[in-house]
């Protein structure tokens, strides 16, 4: 119950962020990270992402499912933004707007701070880059979700559904599948992600960026009491079971490309 109650505080916290800094809806929060990408509503990578035609099966499955149902879970929302900004090199604004139009539970105070955080635009949070191949292996190990929403891949064996572009030539004729013909070839999202991670880390290390980061923390960071003051409260019986819930499913390892 303590964990549940703590989560009820977070919507108010994020809504207050937007009220304290309304520009979060349209401008990159950290001044040192502005102007790195152009806003282009007609960019081919953006169009493919919005249609679920990026050539990355889990990304496309999530987008198609979201379009059909209006909902997708937290981790996959984060992955969609991560792939758009790190994997496809897009500015976060247009992807954020597209998702806002699709979410049945859209709340701008939660949406925009989370989008900027996942896009690495806050300059204060750890960079969380989601590798869609690993996410498919971890969260759709049997390939059922991908097969349901990307039927173009149904004929492929399980081990190739998460990365159909890597299907060996010897198997392409056997399964009647030709990458780029029956399903799009993906952008080199791993190289793109490495490029943006390196650039963002370097920019964040400059003295001016560090000063701006501290100003953001002072204005917008959570004012929760430090752990020592909460130590006297009773702990849940099964702490491990609640850990994911308490963290909202967020990545906790700052430098992993997972």
Strand % is under 5%
The coarse overall form would be globular
Radius of gyration: 20 Å
Major sheet size, sense and barrel closure: none
In short, what is this structure?
This protein has 258 residues and is an all-alpha fold. 55% of the residues lie in helices and 0% in strands.
Task: Describe the overall structure.
This protein is an all-alpha fold and 258 residues long. The chain contains 14 helices and no strands. α1 (2-20) crosses α6. The longest helix is centred in the N-terminal third of the chain and has 19 residues, at 2-20. The radius of gyration is 20 Å and the shape is globular.
Give the tags.
258 residues; disordered C terminus; mainly alpha; globular
Strand-helix topology:
Layout: H1 2-20, H2 44-51, H3 57-69, H4 74-87, H5 93-102, H6 108-118, H7 132-139, H8 144-149, H9 158-161, H10 169-175, H11 189-204, H12 207-220, H13 227-230, H14 239-246
Helix pairs in contact: 1-6, 4-11
């Amino acid at each position: 119950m303590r964990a549940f109650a703590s989560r009820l505080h977070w919507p108010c916290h994020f809504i207050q962020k937007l009220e304290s800094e309304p520009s979060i809806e349209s401008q990159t929060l950290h001044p040192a990270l502005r102007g790195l990408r152009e806003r282009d509503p007609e960019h081919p990578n953006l169009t493919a992402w919005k249609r679920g035609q990026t050539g990355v099966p889990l990304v496309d499955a999530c987008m198609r499912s979201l379009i059909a149902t209006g909902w997708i879970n937290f981790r996959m929302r984060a992955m969609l933004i991560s792939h758009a900004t790190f994997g496809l090199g897009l500015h976060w604004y247009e992807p954020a707007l597209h998702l806002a139009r699709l979410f049945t539970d859209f709340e701008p105070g939660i949406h925009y701070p989370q989008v900027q955080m996942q896009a690495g635009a806050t300059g204060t949070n750890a960079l969380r880059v989601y590798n869609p191949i690993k996410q498919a292996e971890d969260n759709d190990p049997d390939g059922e979700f991908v097969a349901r929403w990307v039927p173009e891949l149904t004929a492929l064996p399980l081990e190739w559904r998460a990365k159909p572009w890597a299907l060996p030539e010897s198997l392409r004729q056997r399964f009647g599948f030709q990458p780029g013909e029956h399903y799009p070839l993906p952008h080199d999202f791993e190289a793109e992600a490495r490029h943006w991670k390196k650039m963002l880390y370097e920019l964040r290390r400059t003295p001016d960026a560090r000063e701006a980061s501290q100003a953001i923390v002072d204005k917008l960071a959570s004012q929760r009491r430090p752990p020592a003051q909460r130590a006297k409260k009773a702990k849940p019986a099964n702490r491990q079971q609640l850990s994911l819930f308490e963290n909202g499913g967020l990545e906790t390892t700052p430098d992993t490309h997972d």
